[in-house]
Amino acid sequence: MSSLFSKDFWTRNETLVAGVIVLFCIIATLSDPQFLSVTTLSDLLRASIVIGILAVGAMLVLVSGGIDVSFTAIAVFAMYSASVLALAIWPDMPWPLIFAISICVGAALGAINGVFIAVFGLPTLIVTLGTLSMFRGFLLTFIGSQRISALPPEMRDFSRGVIARGTTEAGSFYSFPWALVALIAVILLTWFILHKTMLGRSIYAIGGSLESARRLGINVKGTQFFVYVYVGALAGLAGIIHGSVGRMADPFSLVGLELSVIAAVVLGGARLIGGYGTLTGTLLGVALIVIVQNSLIVVGIPTTWQSVTIGLLILIGTGVPAYRAKRAAARAG
Amino acid sequence: MSDVSPDAFIDLAGITKRYAGVTALDGVDFTVNHGEAVCLAGENGSGKSTLIKIISGVEQATEGTIRIGGDAQPVLNPRISAAAGVMVIFQDFSLFPNLTIYENIAFSTQLTGGKRLFERGKARKVAQEALDRVGVKIDLDARVEDLPVAHKQLVAICRALASKARLIIMDEPTTALTEKEVSALLGIIRRLKEDGVAVIFVSHKLAEVLEVSEKVVVLRNGKKVAEGPASEFDTKSLTRHMTGRDVAEARPSPVIADAQTLMSVRDLSKDGSFDNINFELMSGEVLGITGLLGSGRTSLAKALFGLIAPDQGTITVDGNPVPIGDPVAASHARIGYVPEDRLTEGLFLSQSIVRNVAIGRLDEHTSSAGFLNMGGLVAEAADWLKRLKVKAPDIEAPVQSLSGGNQQRVALARWLSRTPRVLILNGPSVGVDVGSKADIHDIIRELANEGIGIIVISDDLPELLATCHRILVMREGKITDELAGGVATEEKLAHSLAS
Question: Which residues of B touch A196 (CB under 8 A)?
Fold first, then answer.
């Protein structure tokens, strides 16, 4: 663990992103004193749940040295087909069962990625670009292309459940939904896998050097396969939460979000070459993206500038450390 | 095999390996005793890599018997071999740059332990014990990517020790090390030998490891051509056994007395890299620049070709100033640069040999309409490859299929096809076998005779002595000494470097 005073701490992406978040909050509070409130916090947290779960999965793939762009298609496929199935066979199906179906469908689709990548050794970007298109097309052609707003009642009940709700002194309403627990559970489980199991350490090792991992006798194929199945399962979970909370199964939603998610992960310090990425960084990256998407208006920047701002943040947030590393390397030579 | 001594850790008898009609190894006997260091020498293609692969279980011998610790091993695979304590340290060390030192050292022990959970405390303990065994203090929590090469190698050695190595095979252990680091490594090898760990060095640069070795085995064309106590070998006899011929390293022919100044460098400085560099290069002269790692020699080499922008100073070629910090301008002034790390900086590895040469001549073979004349381009490239004796089955084959020496020739051919006035060679024979090395030195001398000014940047002292008319010594970014090539000796040069 790096201490607060080490040089390492100040040059890390995490520190940089956290700094930008704090800076943004200060500016936002100056222009609107209402910004710093429980209401804003609950809004931002609610907006972070789906993107957060997806980002944890995307981070895992980046750490293993791959890239996955198909997870949004998996999420929407799993969500929609689980909803359709529940409505067709047992409209009163309890929500844990619907969630389990969605997670299993996600894992199965992830396994398809896993087969192409781990077994046949194909490039991850190409495989997932292909499956992104395939999963989405399959969903719209064979399962349905209608928005369903009459979801199973249990899904609605899930979205109504809150940990805490109330009204602030200023009179604005806030609530923390149970779905937050899912994000926290995903974080804890992923943290445990990454740091406490040989499987997790193998994911880092493979991302660091695939060849070395093979020579050392790490089960490279098995580990890669696990990564894509796990990411698929997380996508299934994120998808069904998205559908429940939004109270609509929309087969056109989510796809298109994948680049924002990967941007959040990269902002948090994960590198596209593999081997690097932390949960803290990923969550900070998610927080920054969510703040930009939801609260930019508070500091007087029109929402149309959202994507420009996100782009700038990526360029600066990942460019500065990369440029510094390059300078350091030049000096060492 | 009744005559196997009880000291033998591994004993190979009559090993033959055939690949689809090609005999890579032909009836080789090879024994390594406990705590013994053996030099396995041979040029590329001599079969030494195949022998190592058989010992480590990656390849199966076609004929012959293998005994490890006295037990016959009819089927050897990587797992059995590793379990018996045979550990290979590859040239690239096979480390994980993104992980900490302790995790790198302990990863395989945790893996073979069959545990599902990662035991951080135990991993740190294992790593600390291994580091204590080699007697080195490094921060356990540092990331491997932040370490200098010499420390990465130590981490690789420690990993082998942590996995209970009885025999460590080191592939080209000294290539990336400075002389000081080599002597530190030799100290560690001595400690390991006292512990009963055997070592096999597989190397091109043998002189350095001879002093800690008991035995030398030389392979040539798949056969064992020499074996004996290390004390009976020296660089010269080793080279003769490896190549089957005497590779006489001639001293450079003297520069013509009235040679013209070709390149002149004035007050070249770059903060933190080099300071106030002045020198002149005559036409037909080979100028050596040497210094330890971090002395600024590589930065200077790059700055001469514009790859690093100096803070101040001037470079002139034939009296005309060359804009500094601009490789395109340097290339127009007909300065050529062959980088040290040809794999990452110099060649397009997956592209064909002929393309790699021709890339330097694209503008010359472009018609006014902007189309390429491929025929002329390919013919010219092929001609250069022939002149430099590049051994390739097919000029359309990718460069990565060539041996190190031939790759270096391709890099040279690319620059020579542009008829350079000044050629900067950074580490011209790094990772190249002895025979090719002598050939490259011949090429350098020949080119100088044609009037090209050549700057050789290297820390390989015999190489500098064999090729250079003058040698500049750098320390902490400054030129601290100048030696005339004809009279300098290796001792003198080494002394000047280190003092």
Answer: 117-118
Q: What is the CATH number of the domain that holds A197?
A: 1.10.3470
Number of domains in chain A: 1
* B344/B332 Cα distance (integer angstroms): 23
Residue B235 neighbours by CB distance under 10 Å: 15
Positive or negative: CA dihedral B84, B89, B90, B92 = positive
- Are B25 and B222 contacting, i.e. CB atoms less than 8 angstroms apart? yes
Give Cα A142 to chain centroid, integer Å.
27
Please provide residue B68's backbone torsions phi and psi, each rounded to the nearest 5 degrees: -120, 120
> Given an 8 Å threshold on Cβ–Cβ distance, is B103 in contact with A213?
no
Helix, strand or coil for residue A207?
helix
- The string of pLDDT tens digits covering residues A207-246 is 999 988 988 888 999 999 999 999 999 999 999 999 999 8
Does the beta carbon of A205 lie under 8 angstroms from any beta carbon of chain B?
yes
Q: Using one digit for the tens of pLDDT, what is the confidence trace for A147-166?
A: 998 899 988 888 888 888 88
A178 belongs to a structural domain: yes
Highest mean pLDDT among A33-42, A222-231, B171-180, B325-334: A222-231
Structure-token match 């559970």, residue found: A185
The 10s digit of each residue's pLDDT in B188-238 is 889 889 988 999 998 766 677 788 888 999 888 888 888 888 888 887 788
Sign of torsion, CA B179 B180 B186 B192? negative
Q: Angle formed by the axes of helices A153-160 and A220-246, to 10°?
A: 90
Residues in CB range of B299: below 8 A, 6 or more apart = A333, B270, B273, B274, B308
**Any chain B CB within 8 A of the CB of A213?**
yes
- On whether any CB of chain B is under 8 Å from the CB of A211, the answer is yes
| List of chain A residues whose C-beta atoms are within 8 Å of the C-beta of residue B92 | 211
Residue A22 pLDDT > 60 = yes
- Parent domain of A78: 7-327
Name the token pair of B228: 């004996």
Angle, vertex CA B420, rays to CA B416 and CA B421, nearest 5? 140
d(CA A244, CA A234): 15
Q: Which two tokens stand for residue A271?
A: 């590198």
The answer to whether the Cβ–Cβ distance between A204 and B98 falls below 8 Å is: yes
- Give the Cα separation of B356 and B350 in Å (integer): 10
Chain A residues close to B99, C-beta within 8 Å: 201, 204-205, 208, 275
Structure tokens at A20: 């930008």
Any domain includes A1: no
CB contact under 8 A, B118 and A275: no
Instruction: Check CB contact of B98 with chain A, cutoff 8 Å.
Output: yes
Distance from CA of B2 to the nearest CA of A (A): 35
Contact B311, B269 (CB under 8 A): yes
C-alpha to C-alpha distance for A258 and A54, rounded to whole angstroms: 8
Residue among B50, B87, B49 at smallest CA distance from B68 = B87
CB contacts of A7 in chain B (<8 Å) are none
Residue A109 in domain: yes
With an 8 Å Cβ cutoff, is A208 touching chain B? yes
Residue in B99, B111, B302 nearest the CB of A198: B111
The minimal CB distance from A276 to the residues B90, B98, B107 is found for: B98
Q: Say how far apart CA B196 and CA B176 lie, in whole Å.
A: 27
Looking at the domain assignment, is residue A276 inside a domain? Answer: yes
Is residue A197 less than 8 Å (CB to CB) from chain B?
A: yes
Q: Min CA distance, B271 vs chain A (Å)? A: 9
β partners of residue B286: B454
Instruction: Give Cα A254 distance to the centre of its chain.
Output: 12
Question: Which residue ranges form the domains of chain B, and what is each CATH number?
Answer: 8-243 (3.40.50.300), 261-498 (3.40.50.300)
Q: Please state whether beta strands B470-475 and B286-290 pair in parallel, antiparallel, or not at all (unpaired).
A: parallel
